[in-house]
Structures are given as structure tokens and as C-alpha cells.
Amino acid sequence: MRKLAAILFFILSTFVVAGSFQMRIYTESGPGAGLFPMISGVMLGLLSAIWFFQEQRLVTTSMGGLSIAKGALIRVGLQLLALSAFATLLEPVGYLASAAVLAVMTALIAGERNWISIAVLAAAASFGVSYLFSSLGTTI
Amino acid sequence: MFEALGTGLLHAAEPQNLLWALWGCILGNLVGVLPGLGSAGAIAILVPITAVLPPVPGLIMLCAIFYGSNYGGTISTVLLNIPGEASSAITAMDGHPMAMEGRAGAALSVAAIGSFIGGVCGTLALAFGAPVLAQIGLLMGPVERFAMMIFALALITGLLGDRMVIGLVMAALGLLVGTIGIDPTLGIPRFTFGSVDLLDGVNFVAAVMGLFGISEILLNTEQRLTGKIADNVGRILPTRGELRQSWGPIWRGTGIGMLLGMIPGATSVVASFLSYSTETAVSKTPERFGKGAIEGVAGPETANNAFANSNFIPLFALGIPGTASLAILAGGMMMNGLTPGPFLFRDNPDVVWTVIASMFVGNVMLLALNVPLISVWVQLLRIRYSLLAPIIAVLTLVGSYALTENAAIVWVTIVFGVLGYFFRKLDMPIAPMVLTMIVGPGIESNLRRSLQASNGDFAVLFQSHIAVVLFLASIVLIVWSVWRTAHKHGEQRVLEMRESD
Questions:
Q1: Which chain A residues contact residue B427 at CB under 8 A?
Q2: Neighbours of B474 (CB within 10 A)
């Protein structure tokens, strides 16, 4: 899996270097907007290549640290769904409802089954956090 | 200097500043105690709360959260055997066996006393060392500053040992993330893909909230975080014998932590591990270590906190954050309109001296919060993670939204959270990326200023003696690190061949 990450970083670096040339490396007034991204991109590309060959020399039998059990994968996926739901709902339905949804979903995913606790949590996460931020002078 | 520190103490003692320091200490201790949230994650999540305060109370609170989380981390390490921080891992070796023997109270008290002494000495080093270093920093031009930042990067990645190449990859990635947005000199958008939200660049705080906060939630969700708490804390205060045994380790830990804290790139893990190995080396009964030796708690915990406070020296004096937590703290300072670096002491002396003075006050507060109230903190450990996770998730995303009151920034946090999750799963160090995200724009502006002055001639970088020394030191460090890694791999291969024979 790390080898794949190294390849992805290498692809990213080629994209960055190509993009930096479009921004111009040098102008009449001195270094252009593309100079620093170009240097960083070249660095990233070279290092990704070294990293790839380093990984190539290692004998790995697993997925290089990314082995996840099916149940855990579902939980992580659901947690991501809960976080994305919050970001999507935040502006159309408002903070209180979206925070309550996020709190309930996260509690359930984390294994909480006591509905009274979940209700208290949802209230604390929505009204409590809203109160905390408004008392500090930020409206959410 | 004494006068400035005295004035700072007077400001720090103002009721409003005391209150925010206390809140910071309580919050820091709280997030440190609760398992499943490291110091960097805690600071990242709480930065938006401090951003709405005026600069001085905001910064006082942020610093208090930082060192408070270091204090609190020990409690979950000793009682649950779950180190909140990598630097606390060594404490678990003797701290948890002590807890299992019913001596958790003594372990935690000695850790709090050691942390207090280490923290105060570290702050003294900061008060006397940082202004001197800042004076030197003021004499530096863009070339020297550029060279110094490169040296700091070499230190940060060179000390990663086996993972140096991945560390450098992550550092390069951080540099690239730092270039997203409008070019500060020419006003050209870079890597924004036509998005208006990216014109101002990737919001640093939102990104680190994802990298540390969201990724931690995802990891804990995957692993279903649980732990068995040691039920019997025992007597709170250590016995006279235990105190006698702890004095030596506390003072040695203070020295080790203070010295290492001054080096950008050295980590608190190195400080606590070095302290532990020193204690095992000087002990007449090293066989007790790993089985509940109080010296194994006193030394590393002291070193850890002395390191945390003296690590502010490179940040305040040179603008170089030594660790990921301090990089996030630097981001918080910038949100409050303060740029860490040599100009901080010149342009905002009242702010910086008040903050330094507040660290003395904060350490006293933490001692008072930790020793008598240990049993209260212990009760917090009984809260199930399934009840904490929703609060952490909501606070992270709401905090992110509060930064700009724009839903797009929430997506930035989530995207960086997913990236952070994969980085951590693949054992890729996030700290170099966070550090270069914060120092990257500084590196670029100093490089461009140097090249502009020389009409694009790169030779200008080698015309300053200081810069040449720093570049050479960076090369030596990287080469030494590569050689050391290769040597280690060679030895391993020889061993493997012998075993197979």
C-alpha cells in the first residue's frame, strides 16, 4: 500500500511541476510564482521515487499497514458519512439539527446504545456547543 | 529582562488573564486525561475557541491548553496504560505497574511535582534564552533566515531515523499545501482549481483539525477504543522514601528536557526516552525498572514537561515550531495577529512577556489542579468513549466552521481528516507536513527576497558565512542520518543472514 502512496505522490509531483511552469518560474522582476512550487514538486518527485524503491526492497506480506477488518471498515465509512452529513446539512437546515444528527450518528457508531445518554448528548452537542460559542462571541 | 518579566507577571496576574489561564489549564488537563485525543489534536480542536478572544488572553489560554494536556496525559497513561502521547509511552512502563500495585496516587503526584519543576525550569530557560536568540534572529537577513529554516527542516526530518525519506516526502507535501492560494508577491492564483474558497489558501487550523482531530476520531472508531482502569489509586501523596528516590530523576529530567527543548526538531519522545535510559543507567538496581520503579515515572515526566516549555524558545525567538503541537499553536498565534519569530519580542513585548509570565502561573495552577484533585480526574476516565466521541466530533467541525463561518472550510477539515487517517494507517509522520505547512510560506518569501536582491542569482545563498555553515550543517545531518540508517539496515541484514544459516 505504501508503494501505491509513493506512486500517487510521484504523480502529484509531476502535476505540480507542470503547473508551476505555467505560472512561470522567472519573470522580468525576479522569481516567478512557479519557482517555489517547482522546487517543492521536484523534491517531492525525487523523494517519492526513493521511497518507492525503499519499499520495493522490503518484503511485505500484509497490505503495508492498511489492513482493516470488514466491521471496522463499515464503522469508519459510517463515521465519514456522519461527518459529511454535518457539512452538507449545516447551511440548509442550520447548526442545531445538523449537530444533533452528527452526535446521534457518532454515538451509535461508537457503540452507545443507551437512548437517554444519546438524547442528552445530542442536546449538549447542539444547544450546549452553540451556547459555548455564542457566549464567546461567535454565532454559529 | 527582569523588568519586562515583572511587568509580564503583573499583567498575567490580572483577573481576566488568570481566568483564561485557569480555563486553559482545566481544558488542557481534561483533554489530556481523556483517552483518544493527543495533545496536538486537543490544541487543534480548541484553537477556534481561543481565536475569538483578544490576543493576550487567547494566547495565554492556548499555551495553558498545550502544557495542561501534557500534565493530563500522564493520568490516562498510568491508570489505563493508554498513552495519550508517544512521549508518555515510556511512563506507562513503570507507571501502570505502580497503578496495578495500588500506588497510582504516588505515581501521579510525583509526575505532577516533576512536571511542575520541569515546567518552571523550562519557562525560566524560555524567559532568559528566547530574547537573546531573538536578538541574533533580528541580525539575520532573508538569506540567513532561509538557511536557518532549511537547517530546522533537516533537524526535524534527520531525527526521524529510519523514516527520514517518508518524513521528507511529508515535508515536501506540506510545502506544496502551503503554496495553495494567491501568490503573495505577484497575485497569481496557485493550485486553486478555480475555487474562490481556496484563493486565501488552505486554512492551516482547519487542516490540522482534520489531520489530528478527525483522523483520531476515525482511528478510534475503527479500533473501538476501550481500556481497563486501575480501580485503586491508593494514597495520593508519595512517601518520604519515594520522594527521595524521585529527586535525582526529576533534576536530571529537567536538564535533559530543557536542553533538548531548545533544539528545533528534537521531540519530547527523545527527551523522555533519554531520561528513562539515563535513570536505568545510573540506578544501582536497574532490574526494578519496568516493574513499578518510581524513578521511571519521575524522570520521563519531568523531561517531557521541561521540554514542552523550553521548546517555545525556537518558536518565540526564531519562528520555528519544533513539534506539531507548537506548529498548531503558531497557527493560533497568527490567527490572533501575532507572528512568531524575532520580531515578536521587538514589536509585541507586552504580549510575549505576559504569556511567558502566565506559564509560571499556569504551572502553579496545574500543580494545584493535579495533586489534590487526582481522584476527580480519575473519575473522568470512567466516561465511555462512545459518549466522548460525539462531543469531539461536533467540537471539531463546529470549531472549523467558526473560523470563517463558511461550510467549505468544514469540507477542508474532513478531507484533511481522511488524509490524516490514511497517513497514520500507513505510519507516515504527520508532524513534518504540519511544520512545513506553517514555515513553508516563510521559506518561500525569504528565498524569493534573496533571489530578487541578486537578480535571480542562486550564488547569493552562499555569500553569507552563517548561511553556508547552516547549509553545511544541514547536509552533514542528512548524510549522517542516511549513513546511520544504512548502517543499521546492513547490521540487520547480517543478523538475518546469520539466523538463516
A1: 65
A2: 20
* Ramachandran region, residue B181 (left: φ > 0; alpha: ψ -120 to 50; beta: rest): left
Say which DSSP state B388 is in. Answer: H
Least confident of A45-54, B200-209, B224-233, B404-413: B224-233
The CA distance from B134 to the nearest CA of chain A, in Å, is 27
Which residues of chain A are within 8 Å of residue B389 when distances are taken between CB atoms? Answer: 106-107, 109-110
* Phi, psi dihedrals of residue A30, rounded to the nearest 5°: 130, -155
Residue type, A77: G
Query: A31 φ, ψ to 5°?
Result: -60, 135
> In the numeric block, which cell numbers belong to residue B236?
495520593
- How many angstroms separate the CA atoms of B264 and B152, rounded? 6
Distance CA B325, CA B434 (A): 9
Cα B65 versus chain centre, distance: 11
Q: CB of B45 within 8 Å of any CB in chain A? A: no
* Nearest alpha carbon to residue B131 among B11, B10, B254, B4: B4
**CB within 8 Å: B417 and A83:** yes
User: Count of A–B CB contacts within 8 Å?
Assistant: 185
B177-214: b (≥16 Cβ within 10 Å) or e: bbbbbbbebbeebbbbeeeeebeebbbbbbbbbbbbbb
Note whether A79 contacts B: Cβ–Cβ < 8 A: yes
Contact A37 B190 (CB under 8 A): yes
From the list B179, B411, B456, the residue facing A37 with the nearest CB is B179
Burial B390-414 (b: 16+ CB within 10 A, else e): bbbbbbbbbbbbbbbebbbbbbbbb
Flag whether residue B199 sits within 8 Å of chain A, measured between CB atoms: no
Instruction: Give the predicted TM-score (pTM) of the model.
Output: 0.81
Within 10 Å of residue B89's Cβ, how many Cβ atoms? 18
* C-alpha distances in Å from residue B410, one per residue of A62, A86, B190, B280: 34, 9, 21, 48
What is the ipTM metric for this complex? 0.91
Residue B42 has pLDDT above 80, yes or no: no
The 10s digit of each residue's pLDDT in B279-313 is: 988 888 888 888 888 999 999 999 988 998 898 99
How many CB atoms are closer than 10 A to CB A132?
A: 15
Rg for chain A (alpha carbons), in Å?
23
What is the DSSP secondary-structure string of A55-86?
HHHS---SSTT----HHHHHHHHHHHHHHHHH
Cβ contacts of residue B374 below 8 Å, gap of 6+?
B75, B105, B108, B109, B112, B233, B236
Measured between CA atoms, the residue of chain B closest to residue A67 is: B425
The pLDDT confidence band at residue B410, using thresholds 50, 70 and 90, is very high
